[in-house]
Design brief:
The chain is 83% helix and 0% strand. By secondary structure, the chain is mainly α. It has one domain.
Length: 35
């Protein structure tokens, strides 16, 4: 199964990275606006 769908894992990895970046950016902006 892993050899059949390598693109799926890549997409999931990219999605997770993008989600983390968005959350980090949101927290960073929240802290800036909070001060």
């Amino acid at each position: 199964m892993e050899a059949k769908k390598p693109k799926v894992k890549a997409r999931i990895a990219v999605f997770i990275i993008v989600a983390i970046l968005i959350v980090a950016a949101a927290v960073f902006l929240f802290l800036l606006l909070g001060r």
